[in-house]
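dumping this here before i forget
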Amino acid sequence: MAGVTGPGAGTGARPGQRGGGRPERPGGRPPGRPEGPGGGSPSGTGRPPGTPGGRRSRLTPPSRRALLAVLVALTLVLGGGTWAVYGSPWLRARTVSVHGTGVLTAQQVRRAAAVPLGGALVSVDTGAVRARLLKGLPRLKDARVHRAWPHTVRIDVTERTASAVLKSGTKFTEVDKDGVRFATVDRAPRGVPLLELTPDQTASFRHFGTKRLLQAAITVAGRLPDSLAGRATAIRVRSYDAITVELTGGRGVMWGSADGSAAKAAVLTALMKAEPHATHYDVSAPTAPAASGS
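structure:
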C-alpha cells in the first residue's frame, strides 16, 4: 500500500533481521565471534584443550631416553654390588680370629662358635655366633663378634675371673664376684680363697641356711680390696655375721656380715697401711676398726 513508512519499510526485512539482510544473533553478538572470555576458547587459552602449549606437559623423547639410561645404570650398579657382596669369591668367610683368651684356648672358642665358613661374609649371623659362645662356654663373661673384611670373623672374649672356689669332693668349683659358678676343675687356682662353711649350729645358721651363707661368703670374696689379691687363702663362715678372711703369713680379718662390704674393704685397705705389722684386723664395725698382734 502506498504511504506506508517506518523502519524496514520498503526493504523486505523479516523479523529478527537488521537492515541489509544480515541475521541478528541472540544476545546481540555478531556472527562468527568465538564464545568464551576474550573471544577465545572455553578454556581461555585460545587453543583446544590438550594441544601443545596448553597446561599439560609431557616428556619429550630425548628426556625419556635419558631417564631410561639412568634407570638402567642404577640397576647395573645395584646388581653388581649385590653380586660382589653375596656372590663373589672375594668377600667369603674363610678364617676366624680369636682374641682375649686366658684359660680357654682359641681352638675351644672356635669350636663353640661354629662359624660357617665358605659362604658370603655378610651372611654370617654374628648374633647367633655370640649366643652359641655364651651358652657353650660358661667361663665366658662376654663375647663380641664382628666381621673383619674381606675374609675374617673376629671374636673378642672376656673370661670370668674366680673370686673364690668351693670344694666338692675332689673337685673345685670356681665362682666369680657375681656369684656365678662357671667351671669345675681338678685343682684350685692359685691365689683364690677357698670358701669354708663351718656352721656353729646357732639359730642364725638355722634361719639363713647353707645357700644364703655361701652367697654371703661369695659377696665378701668379690669385695676384697685389690691389695689382697693372691693373699687371701680362705673365707670361713660360722654364721651370717661371723665371716672371717684368712691371709697368708698367719694373719686374719674379722669381716662380720656381708653387709657394707664395700665400705669394709676401703677401711681394711687404710687400716693395713696404718698397721702393716698387725696379725689381726677387725672391720666388722667399719666405723670403729681395730688392729692387734703387731
